[in-house]
Amino acid sequence: MAEYNPILTAPVGANKKPKRVGRGSSSGLGTTAGKGNKGQQSRTGTGVPYVGFEGGQMPLYRRIARKGFSNYPFKKEYVCINVEQLNSKFNDGDTVDKKALIEKGFISAKSSSMVKILGNGEVSKKLTISVEKISESAKAKIEKAGGSVKIIEATAEETK
Hints:
Radius of gyration: 34 Å
Structural class: alpha/beta
Number of strands: 6
Largest sheet: 3 strands, parallel
Strand order of the largest sheet: 1-3-5
Oligomer: single chain
């Protein structure tokens, strides 16, 4: 029977020695280390400094004029809460307003966001809701359970 040899060897040519650049002119990769003479690609650091770089030419995103209206400063942010969440955290006959939602941990006290009630889930408790917005399905479910809904106007400081 043949003797078992546990030593594995890689096939010839599988393992190459790494290029050692910049180790003298006789190595073939001395002086400029295979990067050519001068220019951006021969320098250290990345080849292209940033996305949209055009070789020193004024990039397109800076050549084109910025125009138009942005609604970003005037956008309104809402914290959305489903009726099933209200049903699980509030008792029968409770009033649900921003103060009560802060106490129950639905919204942060520092948050300037407005509240919108959505109609996902079922509500079985009689709740008095007083928020900035409410969906039609949520309103119908709350009123069907015997509760009432009051839409309040957002103050100027809350919208900022």
